[in-house]
Write a structure and sequence with these properties.
Order of helices and strands: HEHEEHEHEHEHHHEEEEHHEEEEEEEEEE
Largest sheet: 6 strands, mixed
Number of helices: 10
Low-confidence stretches: none
Mean pLDDT: 96
Radius of gyration: 25 Å
Structural class: alpha+beta
Number of strands: 20
């Protein structure tokens, strides 16, 4: 796969944004035409972006205020914050005349129910459906505020689940989507390089998070969705959140970097050891890598998610009572405009409800293994594109073996071994005759 700079140029074909917009909308239209739904009504910002190629900043992602309607056989209509709607009219010509309009929902209930915002949304939708003879057809919805749902039902609109249609539309990536996902991963490659060069005893998890944010935003990231930074005894069980804990010599430290470039996400774990690694951590890392590589080796069109997860250990094998308790530790998920899309790989659901892997899917596979010391652990993740005869991994920071961050420690006998117990007394042998403690090996 090609890697490009983030600029647009006239002398090289990189991402063609007109083709990206057209192909995404065409996929959704085709699936809608085959369905029993008369229209799709979307409040989820990622689905709105997929259908309309509009974006007003990630601050609005959880508000459910913006909405768009895609009627059967017609073009999408977008309702947005008033000034944003005016901006779309000026800068989003693909929406066409009259299809970028002011409209606002209830702000997650912050507006008084008596203000009638839910009823206003429902009335807008009813008018569009009535004009097209679609009022008696079901309307698929992806996510919705309860007052708006009830208002739609009072207008006589049958509401059905539209999430699955949009998940199906977004499951197979277009050429331009794959290019953007590859570019997003390349940015994280660079963030891990800076993290590797900076990490040392004394640096705090939150400082690592700040460094990653700085690198990504300077490279052109649209949004750093999150950075998991987990170190030391916090590694097992996995807490999924960073703190201000300072790294110590011999610590394991693993990170997950989730960011967006032109809307397209990454989910990308790497594990490091600070200055040195214990044998138990190294063993855990190699086991973790084994399960990941075994899964990657199986990926090709026609294989199912059940085939893949059958290679992974049962929850009880690594200290959990059942698959729900161990969920997302041995895991796979589609990545696109969000980090969790189809297909899903998990022993919780995939064995009984498998999905078939297809060319053009982009997903992440991530594995975890706790160390025998009871507190260390390894976590590795690769993001990959399914090709005609296999797959290509697009997360490129080295991970085939455990990476040691920070400078080695030098002594009169040379540098300390990079494989050592964090407690110095466990790395020496006592000589009772000379009364000396001598480094092992």
């Amino acid at each position: 796969m090609h890697s490009y700079g983030v600029m647009g140029v006239d002398w090289e074909e990189r991402v063609r944004y007109d083709r990206l917009r057209e192909e995404r909308l065409a996929r959704a239209k085709a699936l809608l035409a085959k369905s029993e739904m008369g229209a799709l009504l979307c409040f989820d910002m990622s689905n709105i972006r997929y259908l309309t190629a509009t974006h007003i900043g990630t601050w609005a992602a959880d508000k459910l205020n913006r909405f768009c309607l895609l009627p059967q056989g017609d073009e999408p209509i977008m309702w947005d914050f008033g000034s944003a709607a005016r901006h779309h009219q000026l800068y989003n010509p693909w929406l066409g005349d009259g299809r970028s309009r002011a409209g606002i929902s209830t702000m997650r209930g912050a507006m008084s129910p008596e203000a009638g915002r839910a009823e206003n949304v429902a009335a807008k939708i009813r008018v569009e459906l009535e004009q097209r003879g679609l009022l008696n057809d079901p309307v698929g919805i992806d996510a919705i505020e309860p007052p708006v749902l009830f208002a739609l039902q009072r207008e006589g609109i049958e509401v059905v689940d539209g999430q699955q249609l949009m998940q199906q539309a977004r499951m197979i990536k277009t050429e331009d989507e794959i290019t953007l996902l590859n570019m997003a991963c390349g940015m994280v490659d660079a963030a891990y390089e800076e993290l590797y060069r900076t990490m040392r005893a004394g640096i705090r998890e939150n400082e690592c998070v700040a460094l990653v944010n700085k690198v990504l935003y300077e490279m052109g990231s649209e949004f750093v969705e999150g950075v998991n930074a987990i170190s030391g005894e916090r590694c097992s069980p996995h807490p999924h959140v960073f703190t201000d804990r300072a790294l110590r010599p011999g610590d394991p430290a693993y990170f997950d970097i989730l960011h967006s470039y032109m809307g397209y996400r990454t989910c990308y774990y790497r594990t490091f050891a600070v200055a040195s690694a214990s044998r138990s951590l190294l063993d855990a890392y190699r086991r973790c890598r084994y399960y990941l590589d075994a899964a990657i080796a199986m990926i090709r069109p026609g294989v199912t998610t059940a085939d893949v997860v059958s290679l992974w250990p049962k929850a009880q094998e690594f200290g959990f009572p059942d698959e729900e308790a161990a969920f997302a530790l041995q895991f796979g998920h589609g990545v696109g405009l969000t980090i969790w899309e189809k297909p899903i790989f998990s022993r919780l659901v995939s064995l009984d409800h498998p999905e078939t892997i297809q060319e053009g899917m982009v997903f992440a596979l991530e594995t975890f293994w706790p160390a025998s010391d009871g507190w260390s652990a390894a976590r590795i993740e690769e993001q990959l594109v399914v090709t005609a005869d296999g797959c290509e991994v697009i997360t490129r920071f080295p991970a085939e073996d455990l990476v040691i961050a920070g400078k080695p420690y030098f002594t009169t006998g040379g540098s300390l071994s990079l494989e050592r117990d964090p407690q110095s007394n466990r790395n020496t042998e006592l000589d009772a005759d000379t009364r000396e403690a001598v480094p092992k090996g």
